[in-house]
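ok, trying the design again with the full structure, not the truncated one.
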């Protein structure tokens, strides 16, 4: 499984229904499962982003499909980042010439 971090902005629609944001986050786990993914953590933040999530997914296509499905609901817009552990990064560095 690969780890992904999403940096999320609430849309105007998402802000109008902000009181439901924790309930929507709980429902995300079931949606993630449809893509073979697992929602590891959700954090609400103040600053440039409104929500940060950590997701484990079997591959990039599954992670992107999950993200697009969530964004299609209209409450959020997100950036998806592939995150590497120290061991994974060491493996990448080992491939350098």
């Amino acid at each position: 499984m690969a780890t992904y971090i999403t940096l999320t902005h609430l849309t105007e629609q998402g802000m109008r229904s902000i009181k439901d944001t924790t309930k929507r986050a709980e429902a995300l786990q079931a949606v993630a499962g449809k893509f073979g993914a697992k929602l590891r953590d959700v954090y609400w933040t103040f600053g440039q982003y409104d929500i940060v999530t950590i997701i484990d997914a079997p591959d990039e296509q599954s992670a992107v499909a999950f993200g697009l499905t969530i964004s299609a609901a209209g409450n959020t817009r997100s950036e998806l980042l592939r995150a590497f552990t120290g061991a994974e990064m060491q493996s990448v560095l080992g491939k350098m010439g």
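Keeping the full-length input from now on. DSSP finds four helices and four strands in the chain.
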